[in-house]
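The following record pairs a protein chain with its ligand, adenosine-5'-triphosphate.
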Amino acid sequence: MTLVVDGMRRSHGAFELGPIDLAVDEEVLSVLGPSGCGKTTLLSTIAGTVTPDAGTISLGGLDLTGRPPEKRGTVLVFQDGALFPHMTARENVAYAASSEKRVEELADALEIDAVLDQRADTLSGGERQRVALARSLAADPDALLLDEPLANLDAPIKRRLRDELRPLLASLDVPVIYVTHDQREATAIGDRLAVIADGELLQLDTPDEVFAHPATPFVASFTGSTNLFRGAVVETGTGRALDWNGRRLDAAIGGATVGETVQFCIRPEYVTLAADETRNSVEGAITRRVFEGDGYLLDVVPDGGDEAVRLALSPPAYERAGLDERDRVRLALPADAIHVIGGVEECSAIGPARR
Ligand code: ATP
């Protein structure tokens, strides 16, 4: 069964969502975007609680556009789970389930057996969210719409549930749309990833492809490719390369022409420390170091430049290198990790080269 959103638009005052075109098969589509970009509006139009201004929504070939929410076969789960507070977890799940056996199956899958007879308003956040998910699955939806279901949970529970959700959602064999503003959640859970900003669908592809080849500067920065620069395409005699503040960088240039100014990016985890001077290497001083728990981020300003290059190192790699703030280092920017996004003019409609 395929969920199809065709030319859908919806405005709220000055905010405009769409036109959105999506086809979600029996897969998990993560929708990633910043707060206020229209993620909830998208889910609500599919669920039928918000009426689109234009376009159609269909599921398995059936036009849902004018149908009331309860006749769509879709289930929408919000971040607070919206359980009946005075009912037990079991009663909440049973409310939607076809049999007691189904309640037991879901309790088992979501590991809520131990709290089944506890009142919903006494459950912890993680337990509440598991019960809410069990209840939504109990309804055997034809399409499942999840709106930031893990947003209110603390990091360890969120990570655990995230890892457990992926196989559970994939096993449903129905279209699932999973909305989040957390890139790790989006990539861990989705078979494909849609990135939305300011009501516009900017890119829809596999998570790997979106991360390796972001379509716009916004997608690059929102998915963590924080090294976003401008350079000119130059002819080298053997092909085309980038001129970046007077430095020559080998890269796959794609469709850009010689003389064109383009934006390009490289993910911090693909920048490496280089022992020797090589092609695509730059030297400079570390101006900033941030420890993120599972790794270090180092900002290095190349000599004669003012744009810092960010490098991500695992703790062992950082310790091996014996680095400190203000140390001088040589970085390699591998040609195959540099992604040319597009001409500056076509990119400038979406955002500045660097924030
Ligand atoms: P968040 O991640 O913060 O939940 P979101 O991406 O889900 O945000 P939406 O809730 O879809 O974004 O909101 C998109 C825009 O539409 C926002 O500017 C919001 O203020 C506006 N909006 C949403 N619903 C309404 C409404 N019922 N009336 C007026 N404006 C609305």
